[in-house]
Request: fold
Amino acid sequence: MHEKVMRYIEKPFIKNILIMGSGTAGGQIITILMAPLITRLYGPEAYGLMGIFISFCYLIIPIAALTYPSAIVMAKDDTEAQGLANISLRVCIVVSLVTSAILLAFSSFIGHLFHLEKITSLFYLIPFVILFSGYLQIIEQWLIRKEQFLVSARVEVLQALVLQGSRLGIGFFQPTSFVLIFSWSLGQAFKAALLNLFSHYAGYNRISFSGETVATLKGIAKKYKDFPLFRAPQILLYSISESLPLLLLASFFGPASAGFYSIGRTVLNVPANLIKQSIGDVFYQRFTVAAKNDEDLPLLLVKASFLLGVVGLLPFGAIMFFGPYIFVLVFGEEWIVAGEYGRWIALWLFFGLMAKPSTVALPVLSAQAFHLIYTVVMVFIWATGLSIGAYIFESEQITIAIFGISGALMNIALMIITIYICRSFSRQGR
Reply:
């Protein structure tokens, strides 16, 4: 029995998942252990302001390089992958500069609209966060291409230790939203620097950002044009949809309400990220290879989705049934509302977890146009539901409930449609 288990673990796909999972788990365990202390120091309003700031950043970060880094894993050789890295970095610099210009013109208006006057001056950190996050995407995708999952795992643990430790230490003397926001912003740069250092030490940081001619880069950019044309708009829309609840809560009910949502989402992101990131990155590489080798893609997709459902049932199920009690026990009485929010967020994230393999499979299936259309529909449904909750019912609870239920239904639909696309893709391949 022991020998069978060891042979199963030694399979590359399972081994890589365990490596990525160990790193992500280490980082999330550190976050969980320090969260009860940190939340008691800073309070809902500080968390709400940080959550809104991060939401603004994540409207742009996923498309900072127009998703060209995602194509690095799929490139036919390292020369082409380095060309994609070069294109990604150049695009990211331009996006960062454009963001700076927009903030110079509209930062005061944005601060007033979302009651963020306390942190308006910190908006100017956003272009730097975008730049470092874009570079981080490039390094991460290069390491995935090289199957150097151990490097990423080590960095996850070290970054979490430094980030949460600094928040806790400074929070005893200065528990403000400024500390939370500034530490998170520096954390992005710190993680990029660590990945660069560790990958260079391991001998896999061979990305060259120079040498290719403009004509060569144009050819590579054209070859992978589906990414900026379809994947980037889809991810932008998805980022907007994910930020909608927090921004709407801040606008209608104030930063404290946004803080309850933010901590609820943060806590539930622990199991979600632990499972999704480790399996998602490995599955993307595995699915790409399977598509090239004409393997049974629908079966691979169904197995991965089912596995994620089984793994996620316990943590998300616990929050769905006992959310308020768990939040009060762990974070204190003032966070009971976050537990109520957490029930509906858990429902959405559970099915989002199961749909993760479908999401990462779509680029490989050349179905990014569909993913864009799907995301447009999803944003429309979420925006309509959130507006009904805020404008008609004027209830935070109903607003979050509509968001969670509609998100769960949309993820179920995504899985079903992606399996159908897989079957069509496999038939065309044969």
About this structure: The CA atoms of residues 26 and 357 lie 23 Å apart.
